[in-house]
């Protein structure tokens, strides 16, 4: 197991490097640059700016400088789009926000999703099952860019209960709508996967044995069925967790949370190479990390799995 | 030399006293004087030398103050400067600065602060995107400094003493003073910048000389300013706290306005008529100095057809501007037959015969012109319209596609993201492209200079007479006939089809007073605003 983890980590580093190099080259290939704008800058002004940011260097030199700064000094450079800030500052401002509402959304999605899925499976083909399936399909088909403005209309305009957007770490009333908007579709997916997997497990031999031995149903479900049934859910949760904590551009846009999701999309549209690279590396590293965690969890839950 | 030049200086006393909020006698003010306005996006920079956005300028105008401010009609009123004189040859401006202007840390604002700020913008090391603005002001040596051929301290701006600033231009520039309310020209605190580097614009560090100080800034969320007691006119400043709130979606912005979270928002396209009926005391439409056009690529890289002025005219005539303004935008915008916005100060549009015809007659003429140019059912004209991603641009492009179809022209719509659009515009890699230009100052040349051979001029149209008119206008006593002639040339030559002139279409809470309703530049100052008790 320990050797496996080491091996996976050894692969993670070249993976990240490849990710950095590819993103860097792809970004540079996109038409227009960070300072292309409606009123073309006089060539001399543009040259001054490019010199300041090192954009006048050959691409390989830029790439090398970038890698060196990232690896040796954890310096992701200055942002082109926000000239008063470095990329580290932009991420330090936005990431804690998405991390907060992402973690809460994750907890809500898992708790509600798994409960719904399990309930539906053990009450298979009853009204409870239909209700749970109905709710999860409803949640899945309601896109968050429809739900977000609707939430604002209902909770801010009509009821006046919640602030229509913005962010505060101290006041959870700012978190509620982003969490609902973000968690819903994940919750629906988790519920469906849990239900399907649970139904399969409930029909298997070891459950029949457990029941035949006269174990109470509660024990059968919690001790014998839930653990194997949760495996497919866990492989879904790894990537889902990463995309939740790195934010959603829709949630950031409609609730103006100031999170990292919108910065990511903006940086790509504005050709803010530095911020785009910084966020790509962050998301890439987290994805690799959580895929590894999922694999370790797998082995821990299912002793049949050997590495 | 300078004394010689300024001997017969023309003293320009400014029309209005420099006042903050002009609260009429007997007005009952509200107890809470807080004002919240809407931002579409994060404020990218609070450094006057690095800001490039309109929204950023709106914030900077509260935190800093330049030589002059604008009043509710857009006229210049004293800011840090109280008056100025100009030498006979129009090259040397001498500004008298008030002696009670202070930075928010209590230091006096002196002429040297402007010298430092302007040199800093021009200095290539600052890498300011708006270095071009200093060039546009025609300050002596600005071009050479930006090009790295001269030292920044050779810029034509000098502190004679703490209260006297002297600016030397290389070319007389009649609109020079009108440029002095622009954020790029604001003074900046040298000591703070040298101590803090790029971080000097953070709350707690930023030192300004405006009516407000920076109290908080959460990137992409909100920005708070508080009344600056050090400001020279603080006793006449009514609003105590201002908050700029980012709402990235226009429709959500309107919802949050209706929920009482914002005091002013933009109205989404097409909703003005409904809102004006529902809230006649809140929905406003103010002319705004931007023009929308379809630029023809007449460069070598452009299509052959567009090199024929008859084709360009026909396409322009066939655009039914009334439909675009009244059916698509619906917010008080006006059809455009000139490039210069109709509300620009002193601008008198020339007679444009096309403007007076009805659309049926224009269409007839367009058909005739196109046939004359050799296009018809046997040889249909194929053209592509490029526009950047936006619902409004798309709606207009679809409408134009239909208008041109009436001429038998096949139109391909080419929607690209913003950076691709601008990149192609600058490389003449388009046929017809959607474009908009917003004036930098309230005078017609800010529009007309665009079409000079060496102007931005994405379609690469060129006309010697036009260039000469624009050059002559810089020293002319009366620019009106020159600008009129320039517009006539544009109307005859049609380097672009002008579509409409912008309006700011906003909702403003009824108890908020002091927002300028006649300033075509859209410039406003928090210090001029106040709230009345309902």
From TrEMBL, chain A:
Spans traversing the lipid bilayer: 99-118, 130-161, 173-191, 229-255, 275-301
Topology within the bilayer: Multi-pass membrane protein
Gene3D superfamilies assigned to the protein according to its UniProt record, in alphabetical order: MetI-like
ABC transmembrane type-1 domain location: 95-294
Location relative to the cell: Cell membrane
SUPFAM superfamilies: MetI-like
GO cellular component: plasma membrane
Family stated for the protein in its record: Belongs to the binding-protein-dependent transport system permease family.
Protein name, as recorded: Oligopeptide ABC transporter permease OppB
Organism per entry: Paracoccus jeotgali
From TrEMBL, chain B:
A cellular component annotation (GO) from this entry: outer membrane-bounded periplasmic space
Organism: Paracoccus jeotgali
Lineage: Bacteria, Pseudomonadati, Pseudomonadota, Alphaproteobacteria, Rhodobacterales
UniProt feature coiled coil, ranges: none
Annotated Gene3D superfamilies: Dipeptide-binding Protein, Domain 1 (3.90.76.10), Dipeptide-binding Protein, Domain 3 (3.10.105.10), Periplasmic binding protein-like II (3.40.190.10)
Taxonomic superkingdom: Bacteria
Name of the protein in its database record: Oligopeptide ABC transporter substrate-binding protein OppA
A GO molecular function held by the record: peptide transmembrane transporter activity
Signal peptide positions (record): 1-20
Protein family according to the UniProt entry: Belongs to the bacterial solute-binding protein 5 family.
Keyword Signal: yes
Location(s), subcellular: Periplasm
Domain Solute-binding protein family span(s) in chain numbering: 76-456
Classification via Pfam families: SBP_bac_5
One Gene Ontology term from the biological process aspect of the record: peptide transport
């Amino acid at each position: 197991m320990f050797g496996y983890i080491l091996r996976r980590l050894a692969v993670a580093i070249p993976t990240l490097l490849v990710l950095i190099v590819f993103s860097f080259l792809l970004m540079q290939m996109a038409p227009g640059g960070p300072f292309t704008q409606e009123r073309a800058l006089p060539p001399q002004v543009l040259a001054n700016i490019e010199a300041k940011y090192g954009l006048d260097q050959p691409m390989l030199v830029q790439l090398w400088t970038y890698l060196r700064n990232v690896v040796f000094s954890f310096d992701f450079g200055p942002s082109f789009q926000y000239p008063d800030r470095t990329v580290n500052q932009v991420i330090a401002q936005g990431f804690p926000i998405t991390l907060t509402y992402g973690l809460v959304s994750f907890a809500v999605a898992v708790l509600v999703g798994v409960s719904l899925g399990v309930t539906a499976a053990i009450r298979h083909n009853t009204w409870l099952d239909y209700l749970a399936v109905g709710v999860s399909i409803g949640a899945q088909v309601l896109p968050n860019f429809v739900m977000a403005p609707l939430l604002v209309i209902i909770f801010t305009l009509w009821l006046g209960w919640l602030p229509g957007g913005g962010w505060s770490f101290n006041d959870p009333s700012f978190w509620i709508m982003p969490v609902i908007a973000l968690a819903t579709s994940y919750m629906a997916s988790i519920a469906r996967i849990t239900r399907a997997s649970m139904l399969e497990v409930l029909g298997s031999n070891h459950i029949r044995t457990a029941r035949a031995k006269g174990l109470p149903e509660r024990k059968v479900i919690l001790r014998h069925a839930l653990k194997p049934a949760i495996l497919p859910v866990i492989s879904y949760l790894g990537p889902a967790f990463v995309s939740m904590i790195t934010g959603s551009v829709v949630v950031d846009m409609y609730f103006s949370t100031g999170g990292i999701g919108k910065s990511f999309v903006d940086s790509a549209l504005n050709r803010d190479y530095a911020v785009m690279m910084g966020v790509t590396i962050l998301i890439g590293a987290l994805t690799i990390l959580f895929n590894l965690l999922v694999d370790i969890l797998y082995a821990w839950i299912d002793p049949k799995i050997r590495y | 030399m300078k004394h010689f030049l300024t001997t017969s200086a023309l003293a320009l006393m400014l029309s209005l006293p420099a006042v903050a909020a002009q609260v009429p006698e007997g007005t009952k003010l509200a107890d809470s004087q807080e004002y919240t306005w809407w931002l579409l996006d994060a404020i990218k920079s609070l450094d006057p030398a690095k800001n490039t956005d309109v929204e950023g300028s709106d914030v900077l105008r509260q935190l800093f103050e330049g030589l002059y401010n604008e009043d509710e009609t857009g006229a210049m009123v004293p800011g840090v400067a109280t008056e100025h004189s100009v030498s006979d040859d129009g090259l040397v401006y001498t500004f008298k600065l008030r002696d009670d202007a202070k930075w928010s840390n209590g230091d006096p604002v002196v002429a040297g602060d402007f010298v430092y700020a302007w040199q800093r913008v021009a200095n290539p090391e600052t890498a300011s995107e708006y270095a071009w603005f200093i060039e546009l002001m025609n300050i002596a040596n600005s071009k050479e400094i930006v090009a790295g051929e001269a030292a920044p301290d050779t810029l034509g701006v000098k502190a004679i003493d703490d209260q006297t600033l002297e600016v030397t231009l290389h070319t007389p520039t009649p609109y020079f003073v009108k440029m002095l309310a622009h954020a790029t020209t604001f003074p900046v605190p040298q000591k703070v910048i040298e101590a803090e580097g790029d971080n000097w614009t953070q709350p707690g560090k930023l030192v300004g000389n405006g009516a407000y100080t920076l109290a908080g800034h959460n990137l992409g969320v909100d920005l708070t300013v508080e009344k600056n007691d050090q400001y020279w006119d603080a006793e006449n400043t009514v609003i105590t706290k201002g908050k700029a709130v980012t709402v990235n979606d226009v429709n959500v912005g309107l919802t949050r306005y209706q929920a009482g979270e914002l005091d002013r928002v933009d109205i989404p396209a097409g909703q003005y008529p409904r809102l004006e009926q529902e809230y006649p005391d809140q929905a406003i439409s103010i002319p705004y100095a931007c023009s929308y056009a379809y630029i023809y690529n007449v460069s070598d890289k452009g299509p052959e057809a567009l090199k024929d002025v008859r084709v360009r005219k026909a396409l322009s005539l066939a655009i039914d501007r009334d439909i675009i303004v009244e059916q698509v935008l619906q917010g008080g915008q006006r059809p455009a037959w000139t490039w210069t916005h109709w509300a620009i100060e002193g601008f008198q549009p020339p007679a444009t015969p096309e403007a007076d015809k009805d659309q049926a007659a224009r269409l007839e003429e367009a058909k005739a012109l196109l046939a004359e140019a050799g296009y018809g059912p046997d040889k249909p004209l194929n053209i592509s319209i490029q526009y950047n991603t936006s619902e409004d641009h798309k709606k207009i492009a679809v409408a134009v596609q239909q208008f041109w179809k009436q001429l038998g022209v096949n139109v391909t719509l080419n929607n690209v993201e913003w950076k691709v659009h601008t990149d192609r515009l600058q490389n003449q890699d388009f046929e017809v492209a959607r474009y908009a230009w917003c004036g930098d100052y309230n005078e017609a040349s800010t529009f007309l200079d665009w079409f000079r051979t060496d102007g931005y001029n994405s379609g690469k149209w060129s006309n010697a007479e036009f260039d000469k008119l624009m050059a002559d206008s810089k020293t002319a006593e009366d620019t009106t006939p020159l600008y009129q002639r320039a517009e006539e040339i544009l109307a005859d030559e049609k380097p672009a089809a002008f579509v409409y002139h912008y309006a700011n279409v906003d909702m403003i809470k009824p108890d908020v007073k002091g927002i300028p309703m006649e300033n075509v530049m859209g410039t406003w100052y928090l210090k001029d605003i106040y709230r009345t008790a309902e």
